[in-house]
């Protein structure tokens, strides 16, 4: 029983070390990764504003422009869903990258 407890503690410490490493690396996160996802986020925000602006202008006119306006609002609304998705993908990608980096370092020792 004591052996199982020790093994479990060692695994917990290993996971803790891995998490600590990942969190430290996330604090120093590579500017390369940040630039890519920041650019994606900015492009998404720009297009989002453009779709809502154009959709609003389309409402000044008669059909079929109003249908186009509604369509642009739907596209813009979908892009609102992309905003948190971009952040989540960035977070998962970076954490996985640093976790794999940690595992490689540990296997090399």
TrEMBL record:
Pfam families: YrhK
Biased composition (Polar residues): 13-22
Species annotation: Salimicrobium jeotgali
Start and end residues of each stretch annotated as Disordered: 1-22
Keyword Calcium: no
Transmembrane segments: 36-61, 67-86
Keyword Transmembrane: yes
Residue span, YrhK domain: 35-91
Highest taxon, organism lineage: Bacteria
Stored InterPro entries: YrhK_domain
Name assigned to this protein: YrhK domain-containing protein
Keyword annotations of the record: Membrane, Transmembrane, Transmembrane helix
